[in-house]
Amino acid sequence: MQTQIRTEKMLVAGKWLDAENTFEVYNPQDNQLIATVPLASKDDMLKAIDEANRAFESARNWPVHDRIRVINKAADYVSEHQEQYARTIASEGSKTITEARGEVKRAIQTLRISAEEARRINGETINFDQNEGSENRVGYYYRFPIGVIGAITPFNDPLNLVAHKVGPALAAGNAIVVKPASVTPLSALLLADAFIAAGLPEGLLSVVTGSGREVGDVLVTHPAVKMVSFTGGLEAGETIAHKAGLKKINMELGSNSPVIVLQDADIQDAVQSSVSGAFSAVGQNCLGVQRIYVEKDKYEEFLNYFVKLTNNIQTGDKMSELTDMGPMINEKEAKRVESWVSEALLEGANIHTGGRREGAFYYPTVLTDVPDTARIAKEEIFGPVVLIYPVNSLDEAVEFANDVNYGLQAGIFTKNLDKAFYAIQRLNVGGVMVNDSSDYRIDAMPFGGVKGSGLGREGVRTAIEAMTDPKVVNFRLNQNAI
């Protein structure tokens, strides 16, 4: 059955527009064309930014109750069209239909949390009389929106990661211009549909589709853009940071996430959690489990059960509810993973299962004996490959876990509270999940990392804090006036 090819428009300052040129969006499973999308020009992006700035100035006193109403109505719209959103995510990206439905639910929750947090953008009073000579002064600070936010989003969560930028930006009273990943722009455009249906004031949201090199640079460098929120790779993040200039930057740049399994852990639980954390979304997940360090007494048991569960993963048609894992985002990425695994094998690694590619499909793969000099041990694989190592102690596991230029999240499995806190204090990461894999996250929590994993934190409340600034107000009272 031939898929109907969609012809999309992009949202520029509240209006759905075509562009002189277009680009094509393909289903990575079968390389079938599913949509044509406007290829925006620099002028399109300049218009979106200029109109966003104008809309922000016009809506500078946009009431909080109205922000809450609009964001909740957008969430209602997504909720009422859940299957359409899920099928869009699954068709343009790598997720199975089951995973896509889960992402839609998370995006709805992200918007709901954004609406709730809008009512909690508070300041506090300041005791100026703590300073000698300021006994006749009183005051406070409050938080105000900073203006136009520029957002650049990745392909792996094409709806929820857009919601994580749009929801907080609007909750804080800002305008936002989104440049979604070119391989998965359809979900972002659908989210824009929700906000238009919700009655968002014109110009406060634009979704500009096209080349990062063509329009992304304009978004990052434009002086009217007061903050850049970027989720993507380390190399791209470093380039953006150098180009952005004097403005706020929030970046989530991926990881090479470790999990530590101690000998007192529930091994079955640790394996089940780690298999899910390694291979959900085809491993194309910044929190995905990549390295596992198991104390030697439990290493063989852990490895054997891990391989057994990995072999049970059903890889195939994304639209089947029986499928656990679909294709990678494209064949090029699958070939990259294939080459990294081949390099590791040449350097002495052993393969226990997987290591096979069919087009854009790369089968779940388990490696051991990977030397720490191998690229796959140091970089973010962003694919369905996991490395398992035996270790002598928790101290050794923590040392190995920290020995990369990433630090997003880590997991540790243990029944010993002292050992858990030892790891919490010494793991150089933004989050430690105890008796969970590194892959655990809720949308309300602060989310981000250290080292090459990024700058700042996402998560709705922390994103709102980054997208607002405090303004101090001080009154000097004339005590002789009465």
Automatic annotation (TrEMBL):
CDD domains: ALDH_y4uC (cd07149). Residues 16-473 form the Aldehyde dehydrogenase domain. Pfam families: Aldedh. The keyword Oxidoreductase applies. Its EC number is 1.2.1.97. One of its GO terms (molecular function) is lactaldehyde dehydrogenase (NAD+) activity. Keywords: Oxidoreductase. It catalyses: (2S)-3-sulfolactaldehyde + NAD(+) + H2O = (2S)-3-sulfolactate + NADH + 2 H(+). Belongs to the aldehyde dehydrogenase family. Part of the sulfo-TAL (or sulfo-SFT) pathway, a D-sulfoquinovose degradation pathway that produces sulfolactate (SL). Catalyzes the oxidation of 3-sulfolactaldehyde (SLA) to sulfolactate (SL). PANTHER family: ALDEHYDE DEHYDROGENASE (PTHR42991:SF1). This is 3-sulfolactaldehyde dehydrogenase. The lineage of its organism: Bacteria, Bacillati, Bacillota, Bacilli, Bacillales.
